[in-house]
Amino acid sequence: MPPIRRVRQHVNPLSSKYANPAEVPDWSEVFANSRLPLHLDIGCGKGDFVREMAARLPAWNFLGLEIREPLVDRALIRRDQALQKNLHFVFCNANNSLRPLLADWPGGCPLQCVSIQFPDPWFKKRHQKRRVVQPELVDVLAEQMPSGGMVWLQSDIEEVCAEMCDRFDENSAFVREGASWLSESPFPAQTDRERVTQEKGLPVYRAKYIRDR
Ligand SMILES: C[S@@+](CC[C@H](N)C(=O)[O-])C[C@H]1O[C@@H](n2cnc3c(N)ncnc32)[C@H](O)[C@@H]1O
């Protein structure tokens, strides 16, 4: 393990430190088979969710994006120790890195599933522009996802999940499944925050969108 580096609780994605997009790796070197369907987890934190998903679903590739670099460093070490060839993490600001990361995927981007789970809430009105789900991010997903692709949103804060839904509702490429919150996650793994919330008996607000046309 690398020396323990302080992991900040929150970082401001609009700070100049995160203004440059991530370098795009060679996807055919990162994944054993870069043509497998891709599941993207935006704001993956420590990466436990995608790590478990990658172990359970070897016919998919999993990519976690995270803005706190020490978490990505550790997640990559654990990935290498477990010899997981269908799992990768990129330290980046998803808001400026998503488009370049997906744009030149060899043979076209195989993005089939996206999850955005328990994003930082940024409660103060003046901080809400720091929230990760912005119209431009939804536009990139609409460009890169094929018809039938799925976007999964969840949060323990109803207003935060409702706002994510507003951004997807505004984009005509996405259609919501049902009008009310869904009770179950479709995935065989939980995120850290999901587990803690459920252990406390608190509600989780969940919504699913399908890339329509
Ligand atoms: C509250 S945590 C939730 C982590 C994990 N998804 C879970 O459910 O346990 C939100 C994560 O999103 C990351 N994040 C926030 N803004 C981001 C951005 N613009 N790009 C990439 N990651 C971001 C944060 O650093 C943090 O790790």
TrEMBL record:
Family to which this protein belongs: Belongs to the class I-like SAM-binding methyltransferase superfamily. TrmB family.
NCBIfam families in the record: tRNA (guanosine(46)-N7)-methyltransferase TrmB
EC annotation from Swiss-Prot or TrEMBL: 2.1.1.33
Source organism of this protein record: Phormidesmis priestleyi Ana
Binding site for substrate: K124, D156
Annotated residues for binding of S-adenosyl-L-methionine: D41, E66, N93, D120
Domain of life: Bacteria
Signal peptide: none
Any one cellular-component term (Gene Ontology): tRNA methyltransferase complex
Substrates-to-products reaction catalysed: guanosine(46) in tRNA + S-adenosyl-L-methionine = N(7)-methylguanosine(46) in tRNA + S-adenosyl-L-homocysteine
Keyword list, A-Z: Methyltransferase, S-adenosyl-L-methionine, Transferase, tRNA processing
PROSITE patterns assigned: SAM_MT_TRMB
Known pathway: tRNA modification; N(7)-methylguanine-tRNA biosynthesis
Keyword tRNA processing assigned: yes
Annotated SUPFAM superfamilies: S-adenosyl-L-methionine-dependent methyltransferases
Sample GO molecular function, one term: tRNA (guanine(46)-N7)-methyltransferase activity
A Pfam family that the UniProt record links to this protein: Methyltransf_4
Function: Catalyzes the formation of N(7)-methylguanine at position 46 (m7G46) in tRNA.
EC class of the enzyme, as a word: transferase
Protein name: tRNA (guanine-N(7)-)-methyltransferase
Residue runs in coiled coils: none
InterPro entries, per the entry: SAM-dependent_MTases_sf, tRNA_(Gua-N-7)_MeTrfase_Trmb, tRNA_methyltr_TrmB_bact
